[in-house]
Specification:
The structure holds two protein chains of two kinds.
Chain A lengths: L6 H6 L1 H6 L4 H13 L1 H20 L11 H13 L13
Chain B lengths: L20 H11 L3 H23 L2 H17 L10 H19 L30 H6 L3 H13 L2 H12 L4 H8 L3 H23 L2 H8 L2
The chains are: A mainly alpha, B mainly alpha.
The structure holds zinc ion.
The site of zinc ion has 6 residues of chain A, from helix 1 and helix 4.
């Protein structure tokens, strides 16, 4: 008979569980625990929602703001101070 | 310290991601030392790259510096760009590296202790404090701009070593092996840090979004 996981062990595996990156028998043991432990189910749900929230927080990639003008000016000024050619002539290979 | 430039071999070599004609032309002008081409590069790719840098370093000032370091580095290395990947993919990698370099060089400030955000357990292995059960109300909240800004602030509060892994894996969607290489840590270490980063962010969001019970109590007169 397989040993049962404690909640502490289950919580350690939840990212792997979400990604299904565990051997099948481990997934079964986790499923068995989750079937009888509402606390770990709550934890798993919140972990999933946390991931959704992180992605939503940075979502809508199409509305990326243009680079602010002062940042453009600073980069162009830095480029004039550090000409691009200093890195050349070292005969670097790929 | 020299910024590392991704070697051509580490850049995905798929025909679908190979360079487009207008990118090839821009690269040729950059390689010829055309000043206007660099400004075009900064304007065309800068907004998106700045957003990536901001996620990794967690604040505006360092993000500007990281973007500047990355674009200057890219320009110096443009002769080595061979067009086997998209220019945007290559620039993304250079700016991620510049952002990680900035994290390593700066003094750590206002970091939340990670331990304080990880779950506590009783001697019998049960959680010491129950997880507040979020419901559909929390799901609706995360789409609101006010919540989204607060979530971004919570991500910024994670310790550098953990935020960087969370950003690269969960937001930039790079694979474990690539992130391990970029951070010079093992893939197993990437997985451990990612899980702890998610757990810590979960705790911060639970404090932010609260539980439905608390919200209900707050609504009562
Ligand atoms: Zn449990």
């Amino acid at each position: 008979m397989m040993l049962h996981y404690t909640c502490q062990q289950v919580l350690d595996y939840l990212s792997d569980y979400l990604e299904r990156s565990l051997p099948a028998e481990e997934l079964v043991r986790l499923d068995e625990h989750l079937a009888v432990c509402p606390e770990c189910v709550d934890y798993l749900n919140n972990l999933q929602l946390t991931l959704s929230a992180a992605r939503a927080a940075y979502g809508e990639r199409e509305t990326i703001e243009p680079i602010p003008e002062p940042v453009v000016a600073a980069i162009l000024a830095a480029r004039r101070l550090a000409p691009p050619n200093v890195g050349r002539g070292k005969n670097e290979t790929n | 310290m020299e910024l590392s430039i991704p070697a051509p071999s580490t850049v995905p070599d798929e025909t679908s991601s190979s360079i487009r004609p207008e990118e090839a032309e821009l690269v040729a002008r950059l390689q010829a030392g055309d000043d206007a081409a660099f400004e075009t590069l900064v304007r065309q790719y800068g907004g998106r790259l700045l957003a990536v840098a901001r996620q990794i370093v967690g604040n505006e000032t360092d993000a500007h510096d990281a973007l500047q370091d990355g674009l200057i580095t890219a320009l110096r290395a443009i002769d080595r760009f061979e067009g086997r990947s998209k220019l945007s993919t290559w620039l993304h990698r250079v700016v991620v590296n510049a952002s990680l370099m900035r994290l390593r060089s700066r003094r750590r400030i206002r970091e939340t202790s990670l331990d304080e955000l990880l779950p506590k357990f009783l001697a019998d292995g049960h959680q010491a404090a129950p997880t507040p059960s979020w419901s559909d109300s929390a799901l609706a909240l995360i789409e609101q701009e006010e919540t989204r800004a607060a979530v971004r602030a919570a991500i910024d509060r994670l310790p550098d070593d953990y935020r960087s892994v969370l950003v690269l894996r969960d937001l930039q969607e790079l694979d474990t092996a690539t992130v391990a290489e970029m951070l010079a840590i093992t893939p197993a270490n990437v997985k451990v840090r990612l899980h702890r980063a998610r757990q810590a962010l979960k705790t911060l969001l639970e404090r932010l979004l609260g539980s439905p019970e608390r919200a209900a109590r707050r609504d009562q007169p």
